[in-house]
Write a structure and sequence with these properties.
The chain has 111 residues and is mostly helical. Helix content is 52%, strand content 0%.
Length: 111
């Protein structure tokens, strides 16, 4: 958990090709939360993952599957809906939640 003691500039330099300074700040904040609230581990609940800075629904769902072997939802994003809309599989009228987007897809696309 040494990351917590790093300055955001140091973290940014380490990930400069992949990210920007706000990401470095979120990495440090996330490391502190994992250390203080989860004993240095990752959360074991979807709500726990979603409480981490910069973690959205898609990443939280993927993390639950990979870290805890718990398929608690379908990780789908706006690109899935764009393709689904173009193929006329589903149409969405409003709402931005991933769950809403995935529910609009036909039943055969869900696990």
């Amino acid at each position: 958990m040494r990351v917590v003691s790093f300055k955001s500039g140091n973290v940014y330099n380490a990930i400069a090709r992949e990210a920007v300074i706000p990401t470095a700040t979120r990495i440090i904040a996330t490391a502190a939360i994992l250390r203080d609230q989860y004993d240095g581990d990752v959360p074991s609940t979807l709500d726990g993952f979603l409480s981490l800075p910069g973690v959205g629904e898609k990443i939280a769902l993927l993390a639950m599957l990979r870290c805890w072997d718990r398929p608690v939802g379908i990780a789908c994003d706006v690109h899935v809906m764009r393709v689904g809309g173009r193929l006329r599989w589903a149409l969405m009228h409003g709402g931005s939640g991933g769950d809403q987007r995935c529910q609009a897809l036909p039943f055969w696309t869900r696990a």
